[in-house]
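Why predict the complex rather than its parts? Because the way molecules touch one another can change local conformation, and only a joint prediction can capture that. The input here totals 456 residues.
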Amino acid sequence: MTTAIRWFWFASPHTFFPVAGTIARWCAVAAAVFAVAGLYVGFFVAPTDAQQGEAYRIIFIHVPAAWMSMFIYLVMAFWAAVGFAFNTRLSGMMSSALAPTGALFTFIALWTGSLWGKPTWGTYWVWDARLTSELILLFLYLGFMALKAAIDDPRRADRAGAVLAIVGAVNIPIIYYSVQWWNTLHQGASVSFTKAPSMAAAMFAGMILMALAFWMYSIAVALMRLRCIIKERE
Amino acid sequence: MLAAARWLIYRDLLLAMRRRGDVATALLFFLIVASLFPLGVGAEPNLLRAIAPGVIWVAALLSSMLSLGRLFAADHADGTLEQILLGAAPIGIVALAKGFAHWLVSGLPLVAIAPVIALQYDLPSSLYGVLALSLLLGTPILSLVGAIGAALTLGLRGGGVLLSLLVLPLYVPVLIMGAGSVEMAGAGLDPGGQLLLLGALLVFTAAFAPWAIAAALRISVE
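Output of the joint prediction:
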């Protein structure tokens, strides 16, 4: 009985508000530390790539951003589904708070990807399977945010957004694989990822540090936004 | 249960027959969009033949989406939708019937009219069958997935533009497989794989989309 109550103890916006502030503060500090360490490793420790030269260093931003963009959508859909199933107010707010961060990382992944593509592939944009599905992911985020913004009643917005997020999450694998098949059909237009030489340990460390920094940043920012939403609604 | 579905389909078809202009507009839109492309990209026959499947499918996507706004709006405005939801029939069945009626009115005519556009684009006549079959399998998915968006945006301001933002990304797999099957057949390959995938997607959508539509309708009406 007590465990059942504890599960929902933090589901109340009022009890979670101060906790969110504490977690957000620590995560913000951790994000700064990891980012400094990651950028130092990325720029000064990691060796220059034999094939791509210095241009490859953008992967320290690009790859973690791409990871986060996909992962945040799943987390967002998870919280939306929890809110839909248990009718908890906080879950819907959580999914609203995550969406802009997810969209931001999707955009960063696309942007840094095209900056990397210019010196490496010779073009800012190719209709590669990964790029195309990342672009569609951005559209899914924007649709989710637009739907929530269009509904005035926050409870209805949360529930409608939850249906859309779940439908989107079910569709993501279908979209991803269909884009991949489409890409193999249009073989001529695609540029394949050059098989990367086995990654140096320093490069890998830099990427992981940056990924941790982005994780911490996402948690901090999402919780700060959550606090704003709680204050706005309650 | 089936009687309710039959009645809903009959009623929607009757309403569509009474307002034939709406149906004709969507079809006309399909024809006009498809006719605009040669004016934009030039009338080079080889180029037209290459882009024909994609153009026909994109036009079908847009014209199917255009008529989605009307799927629930009129019933919502005059209170019929509320009464249907209060009724004994499961909302999932209602949603499926509405989607099916929408497809009969907006999707099926496209299947019939697509070979005419294929003719304009100088597509070899051997491809008409694959094109029609891909549209036959794909357009019901458009109606059902679109119905989720239509139910979610019911009664919202700027519903039309918002609807397209929600629905078009979800249409991507249908577009890829539909146009892909015709292109494969055009390249002399077997389009069977793409058509089977499209069929699988149709079964998947028909099984799960009614749930999402029902949930969205309940949210919009409450």
